Structure formats: C-alpha cells, structure tokens
C-alpha cells in the first residue's frame, strides 16, 4: 500500500481528469473560506470518471502537509483503492484519510465524492449522547437521511471498513460519533449540499442548546420538509447552483486553485 507509480504527464492528462482536479481544488478553497479546516488534516476526495480510470476506482485526495488554501489542481494526488499513488506525486497522503475515504469510494457505488470535517459544531453534536436533534429548519431537511457510526479511534485500521459501510447504509449524511461529520454524493456539489445542511443543523443546535432545551419538530413535519427540500435532488441541480456561486467567490479572491 502507498506505493508511487508514475502515469501520464499533465500534457497527456485526460480533459475529464483536469476538470475533476479543478473542481476539487476549488472545493478545498471553499472549505477554507467557510472555516471548515483543521490545520493540514481532514479530506475531500473525488472519484475520477470512468472515462479516465476505466473499470478501476481511482480518486483524488489532498497532499498531506498542505493547508486547504495551498491545494491546487496539479498538486492533488491520484490514488487507487489500494493506496498506490498513480501520478508520480512527490507528496504523501494521510493514511487516516485514505482508509476512511477509500472504504466509502470502494464500498458505495454512488459515492463519487466524500467529505469529512472536524468543525466545532460538528464534533460537539457528534459527542452528544443524544446526537443530532430534530429541532431546526436544517435538521428537519435531513429526516431519515443521517447515519451514525460509533467511534473506534483514529481511522487507520482497514478492519473498521465493513463496520463503517454497515453503519452508513444508503444515507448520505453521516455523524461519526465523538469525531465529526461526513457526507458523500453522486457529485461533488451534491455531497457539499448535504454536508452544508448537516453543518448548519449542528451549528443551530449548538446555539439553541446553549440557551435551553430545543423545541422538537414533529416527525411528520420533518418528513414533509425533507420531501420538499430540492437541494439534494439531481433533477434540481443537486447543489450545483450553490457550489457555482461559491466558486465565483473563490475566483474573485484567488484563482490559483486552477494551477
């Protein structure tokens, strides 16, 4: 595992890989803009389309040691599910990120993008015995969409993988107990829309509980909210419009992510 194998040069890169790299690099800069960073840790990974990798599942991950503000299209690292570095990158990858993300990319067919954060609000709610409260506008939009996985320590042990997948099932919003938040999506914007909604739900819960007991949203109302929410649905863009708006902000601040 974690061997380096050179493949194509940048000049030979498939246009679909180039597009994926630019989109993912933009997302890292968006996370930095939103304050969803944890020094050099945590990860957003994106599976490359079949036009690039064929039947194999290759994905892009951030180079370990760089802040999200330093991630660019060219320094993202391409790996396979075995953890081999495929693009000759001089950068290492974080084993904790590789193990968790490769498990989900490899085990869930629709998981083309996986995002994981350690935000204060996310870890705080993940550390509550009661977990996420169905008590605000955002948690109500995640009715029956949130999975939980019990804490087993730092995610560097492959044997935890089957239990992670069993915990997640088909739910795209995941609370890793005592640890943080995770989302996966058929596209990067969809994964972002799910994570943003989960993050907002946690932030508002944290603020509410600092003042007193939350007012619960009835089950039937929450179910209706989730049915009426369109931001996760591919038929309605699945978060693409929101993601595009944030990319435009990044463009105005620093377009070097495309390098």
From TrEMBL:
Family: Belongs to the aldolase class II family.
One Pfam short name: Aldolase_II
Organism per entry: Ottowia beijingensis
GO cellular component: cytoskeleton
Protein name (record): Class II aldolase/adducin family protein
Origin superkingdom: Bacteria
GO molecular function terms noted in the UniProt entry: actin filament binding
Gene3D superfamilies: Class II aldolase/adducin N-terminal domain
High-level lineage: Bacteria, Pseudomonadati, Pseudomonadota, Betaproteobacteria, Burkholderiales
NCBIfam families, A to Z: PRK07044.1 (NF005451)
InterPro entries: Aldolase-II_Adducin_sf (IPR051017), Aldolase_II/adducin_N (IPR001303), Aldolase_II/adducin_N_sf (IPR036409)
Annotated ranges, domain Class II aldolase/adducin N-terminal: 22-206
